[in-house]
């Protein structure tokens, strides 16, 4: 083999054995979502869940509940907790909500019964408010009946119209 041929062979071999930077690159870290951003999504979906079930749109209500469950089991455990208040209560209360309250709502939606649904909605809103109060966010008030804006922004009795 001539020296030129050896040189060409070496170039070819090194090109083939070069580690691919594309396949070995680590996945970029996913950006951390804030607790409040995830909660705004929970609130919108909980409001829709209530309005959908009141209108007999139970499949839509079930879908919204599934998305809320995902927020509690996947997003919120990794979300950046607020700095103010009592963030230490959040992990246990979020997991209790996912287990107890989501299950309660799912059964009530499956029953296709308005009165039963309204009772479960009220228990869920109470659980939402319980965590807001315990974590130092009691001013974020979730109404007890379906169909109202979440959070409650109605004028307080002390405010004259
Ligand atoms: C595990 C505790 C916990 C539960 C359960 C919970 N929340 Fe929250 N929520 C929080 C905390 C903490 C904040 C404040 C987040 C922040 O300041 O970053 C918040 C904020 C909010 C906000 C304000 C979001 C914004 O920034 O605009 C709304 C609305 C809300 N929650 C609705 C709900 C509803 C509806 C439910 C029940 C279906 C619920 N939350 C259940 C802890 C909870």
Termini separation = 97 Å
Uncertain regions spanning at least 5 consecutive residues: none
Query: How do the SSEs run, as a string of H and E?
Result: HHHHHH
Mean pLDDT reading: 89
Q: Number of helical segments? A: 6
CATH class of the domain at 35-80 and 87-134: Mainly Alpha
> Which structural class matches the secondary elements?
mainly alpha
Could you give a short account of the major beta sheet?
none
What is the level-2 CATH architecture name of the domain at 35-80 and 87-134?
Up-down Bundle
Task: Enter the CATH topology name of the domain at 35-80 and 87-134.
Answer: Four Helix Bundle (Hemerythrin (Met), subunit A)
Radius of gyration: 26 Å
In a few lines, what is going on in this structure?
The protein is an all-alpha fold and 161 residues long.
Overall description:
The protein has a domain at 35-80 and 87-134: Up-down Bundle (Four Helix Bundle (Hemerythrin (Met), subunit A)), CATH 1.20.120. It contains six helices and no strands. Helix 3 (35-54) runs antiparallel to helix 4, helix 4 packs antiparallel against helix 5 and helix 5 (90-110) runs antiparallel to helix 6 (114-134). The longest helix is centred in the middle third of the chain and has 21 residues, at 90-110. With 161 residues, it is an all-alpha fold. Residues 34-36, 39-40, 42-43, 46, 82, 90, 93-94, 97, 124, 127-128, 131-132, 135, 137, 140, 142, 150-151 line the site of heme C.
């Amino acid at each position: 083999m001539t020296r030129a041929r050896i040189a060409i062979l070496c170039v070819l071999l090194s090109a083939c054995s070069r580690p691919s930077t594309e396949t070995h690159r680590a996945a970029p870290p996913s950006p951390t979502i804030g607790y409040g951003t995830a909660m705004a999504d929970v609130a919108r979906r909980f409001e829709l869940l209530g309005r959908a079930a009141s209108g007999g749109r139970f499949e839509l209500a079930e879908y919204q509940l599934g998305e809320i469950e995902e927020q509690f089991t996947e997003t919120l455990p990794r979300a950046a907790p607020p700095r103010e208040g009592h963030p230490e209560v959040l992990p246990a209360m979020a997991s209790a909500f996912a287990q107890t309250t989501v299950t309660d709502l799912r059964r009530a939606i499956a029953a296709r019964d308005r009165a039963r649904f309204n009772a479960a909605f009220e228990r869920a809103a109470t659980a939402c408010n319980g965590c807001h109060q315990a974590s130092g966010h009691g001013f974020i008030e979730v109404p007890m009946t379906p169909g109202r804006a979440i959070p409650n922004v109605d004028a307080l009795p002390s405010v004259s119209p």
